[in-house]
Structure formats: structure tokens, C-alpha cells
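Form P-L/3: holo structure prediction, ligand WTA.
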Amino acid sequence: MRARRAPEAVTHAPTIESLLDEERSFPPPPAFREHALVRDEGVYEEAAADPEGFWSGLARELLWTRPWGKVLEWDPPHAKWFVGGRLNVSENCVGRHARGPRRDKPALVWEGEPGDERTLTYAELSREVNRMANALRSLGVRKGDRVAIYMPMVPEIAVAMLACAHVGAIHSVVFGGFSAQALASRIQDAGARLVVTADGGWRRGNVVPLKATVDEALASCPTVERVIVLRRTGKDVPMAPGRDAWWHDVVPQQPDHAQAEPMDAEDPLFTLYTSGTTGKPKGVLHTTGGYLTGVYATTKMVFDLKEDDVYFCTADCGWVTGHSYVVYGPLSNGATVVMYEGSPDFPDKARFWDLIQRRGVTIFYTAPTAIRQFMSWGEEWPRRHDLSSLRLLGTVGEPINPEAWTWYHRAIGGGRCPVVDTWWQTETGMIMITTLPGVDAARPGFAGRPFPGVEADVLDEEGKPVTSPHEGGYLVLRRPWPAMFRTLWNDDARYQSEYWSRFPGAYFPKDGAKRDRGYYMILGRVDDVIKVAGHRIGTMEVESALVSHPAVAEAAVIGKHDAIKGEAIVAYVIPRGGAQVSEQELRDHVVKALGAIARPERVIVTPDLPKTRSGKIMRRLLRDVAEGRPAGDATTLADPAVVERLRRSFGESP
Ligand code: WTA
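OUTPUT (holo model):
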């Protein structure tokens, strides 16, 4: 058994400053509130009194081709929403806007890293999606088939996702930073028939060789019949005859119209793989009607989205934020979405601010790790640009420290924009805890309140609610919500045991939390998942990658506090009987197995690890060593001298 992090362990001892921070409160600015879509506190009570009525009111704003019968069928832990209803997600996100007054409204405003630009109106996006849908069908893709998407952040990634939705194929987007092995295991688990990729993408002036990675992955993916390759960088890539086809050879000549597949509300829309407590990533499955209702409603209400907004979310479509809040949420609302391909410091550290100024961005949604990076680069970068178009800021992915929150509010928001701190997960599909910017005061450090219709709680070890605002506990969600994941792909047993068994009747997201006057402060993960630059990395996955190296006997991986990334990966490795292996080689080995996003910051090769007499590795002590703290209680160690030896190895430069 591995030690779980108790909520107390993630509650860092409060300093006087952070206690003062917790008292700060930023009510909605009157000028914002006056025009806000939601101004009335009553929305919370109404939704709580009749959650099904609340959600179905929002669902009715979407386009259904057959009405639903029952709103919710709840057979814990399995939910069905809008039972019997039919709709198509692509029709809701694109088709209906392209046929109406939004026809010539920009849907995607895209900038490539090298400086190239493209804008697609709703009519143009619809044409692209329909052609791609026809191309998919012409290559044999049918409703229920799985399609893997491994692409840079170009308009075609959204086109590919929407085209899958159009024909009823289940997409599985894999982030372009994952390795060939990681891509292969996701393709195999999903049993994908087709892969959409590109010759490469741009990142910090370099080409990310996506096609080469696909070729390597496909050597072990027999289910894949066809590959569509977008030309993005123009670099030469080998094309496998009979398998690979260029996008420009199979898409543009297709007819502009494709019949949208009528989808049942509970038909799958996509799977997205995410890290958990074991070495095997899980395929989180989202369905059609409930998911779209949840992301539609939260985009509209949390971001106070209006017709003339210019909305910019910096997430990559390889993560859930890119699914829910770059593609499906904003487009179902008919918004103008700004999309950017590359790195925020290319060609210089003002790239985002320049983009915001030129495009007149009004809503900006990013991650705490990015905000801390901007802070470290200095306020002179945003100060060179006119950011007065901004009216709302958002953050997601990990807890935001109050210093970063206030910097964001002041340096980017000019002190006038509400900041929404949004807590949610790949599994929840939609924002679950936040503030409604025209209703609620923001309190730095607190994500906010459960979204209307959502019911949360904080429980102690025994499952009893924690009532003191000073005590941490386990966050749970009590009531089904429309965008909840329905199961794990091919593994419903794991769905039940991982999420629904710890606290019977409640969903356990594996975060610690504290609650004060109805506001939730998220304290971070209580399982073996760490958040590196906002990305979920399972420590077990990194451990498995390390022990797959022939020179490694045993590995223990922990997250170490990092001022910018939130956490950084540190690995302790025991070599196999006298084997010689360098820190660099092991780092490269992890990158090969999982991808650059899982590269350990340090790998300490050590003859022994701190273990209890029963042989359990004491990860708490490994964190103490990595963070340079005096080691905590080590009395249960079999050999107390180990910690001192590790401390010395840690001090040696890599
Ligand atoms: C963390 C990202 C604090 C949390 C959308 C959660 C947050 C995990 C916040 C999910 C926030 C996300 N405040 N922590 N506002 N948002 N988290 O699946 O630990 O990549 O369980 O989804 O990120 O990460 P995931």
C-alpha cells in the first residue's frame, strides 16, 4: 500500500500574511455587475431547489432534433441525462450559427507561432467541418469508431474534433508533448481506426515532429488503418503508401455539406486520457447532451459571455480545458475564440499581451503556472501593451497563490476585471466551483462556491462533514451534474472503485479542501498525482517508466514545490546490483517513455531509500529532502542514516 497524502499534509502551515490574504475580498465592480448576465444571487437557491429544472432550462437553449423524456436517470454511480433526447454537437457548435445571424462572425481567430494568421467565420468553419466529416466518412469512419488526434494548436485540430462529433466518431485527442509510447498506449486502449496529425507544429521556434512520433507509435497499433496528415511546417515527412493521406488531398475537394449524425444524448462524444494512481492512464468518457449542456452553461455564466466578446483561453486542445473551454463551450455559445499555436515567450515575453491588444481580447483564461511565469518575467512586458479591452480574467488547473492572484488582477486586469478561479477536472467536464463574476465577491486563495445546481462538501476521514473553516478535509460532490464523465473507457470497475467507493454515494475528486462561509479553498491532490505546470502526472507512471530501464531496481517519485510550475518531479532511484547509470540517461528514459512534460527535474541515484521496518517507502521524508527541510519524524525508519545520505546526494549538482 502506498501512503496517501492526508489533507493536513497539503495544508502548508499558514503564515500571518496568508491569513490576512484569506480575509481579502473583491466584490464585483459595480460597472461590471450592472451589465452582467447573472446579477441575482437567487440563481443559487433556484438551482438548489430544482436542479433538474435548472439544467433543463439551459439545455433548451441548445438545438435538439428530438426532445428528451426524463431529465436525469440516476442509478448511482451511473447517470443518464436528457434521456431519449437527440442532438449533434457539431450542429450546435457550428452548423446552427453558420445558418443564422452569426454566419459572418469570426469563430476562430488564430495565430501561428511564426506570425501567420487565419480567421474562420462560422460559415467558413462550418464548411471545413463538413468537408472533414465527409473525408472521415470516405475513409470508412462511422458512428462509434475511435479517432485519435495528435496535432498542434491550429484551426484544424478544432475542425477534426468537430468533424468527429459531426459523424458520431469518438475522438481521443492526445497532447502533442506526449511520447510515441504514451501515444501508442492511448491509441491501443481506445482501439482507434484513424489518426489525424500534422507534419509538425511550432514551439519556441522549433518544429515538434508530430508525424515522426505517430510513425513510431503506429508500429505497435494494428487497429489504425488510415492517417490524415496536415501540412503545417512544410518539412519533409515520410508518407506510408495506402495508410497516410495528406489533409490537402482528401479534405478540400469534399462536398460542403455532410449530414450530421443524429446522436443520442448519452452517445459518447470523446475520451480523454488522464493520469491516476496507477501506472496506466484512464480514458475518461464524456457523452453528448449532458456534456454540451454543462460546458455551454458554465462558459456563458462563469465568463459572462456576450455576443461581442473576444474570448482567449490559452489551453491546448490536448487537455480537457481545450476541449471544454476552447472548443465546445465557447463555440456552442457562438463566441469568437482566439487560438494561439505556440509558446508565450516567442518571439518575446509579450506575445500574449501583444495578441490581446491587437485582437481586442475581452476575456482571458489561463493557468496559475503561466501567471507565475509572467510575474517572474516582470510587469514591464504587459505594461508595454494596452490591455484595456480585457473585462474578465480566469484561472484553472491548480490552486492559485494569493500573490499570483493579486498580480494577475492588478498587472493584467488593471484592477478593474473580476478574476474567476475555476476548480474542475477532466472527469467533471465542466467548471464546478468558482464565483459568478456579477454576483459573488472573489476571495484570493478560494476558488469560490459550487456552481448553481452543484452540491459539494468537505468530509473527514470518517466521511463526516468538516464544519470548522480552519480544518482541511476531503472534497466531495454529492449530486450528479450533466457534464460528469460516465465511466472509464473499458474499465467501469475502476470508475466505480476509484471515484465512488471512498465515500459511499459521493463522487471523490481526490482533492483536499477547506470551507469558509460557503467558499471552498482547494488544497491540492490527496492521491499520488502531482501537478506540474498544471498538467496531471501520475507519480506511479513515472516510477513505472524508471523501473523499465534495465539499470533500475526501484524508484520512488515525488512532487517538490516549485515557484513557477507549482510542483516539479523528483525521482529517487536504486540501481540494479552495481549497475552504473547517470542522472541524464534516466531523465531521457522518462522523456522517451512518457514525453517531455514528465521530465524529472532531478533523478537521485542512491543505494537505499528511507523505508519503514515493514518496507514501505516514506515519501514524506523524500519530499523533506527535496525541499531542503529538516526531515520530519524519522523514528519509524529501519535505517535513520539513509536520510542524511540522501541529503548529501541531493546537494551534489546533477
Ligand atoms: C487541480 C484541469 C485548485 C485539482 C481542469 C484537480 C485546481 C485537478 C483548480 C484536475 C483550481 C484544477 N484550484 N486546483 N482552480 N483547477 N485544479 O484533470 O487538483 O487536468 O483535481 O483538469 O487540477 O486536473 P485536470
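COMMENT: The pocket of WTA is lined by residues 274, 319-321, 396-399, 421-426, 447, 509, 511, 522, 524-525, 531, 536 (CB under 6 Å).
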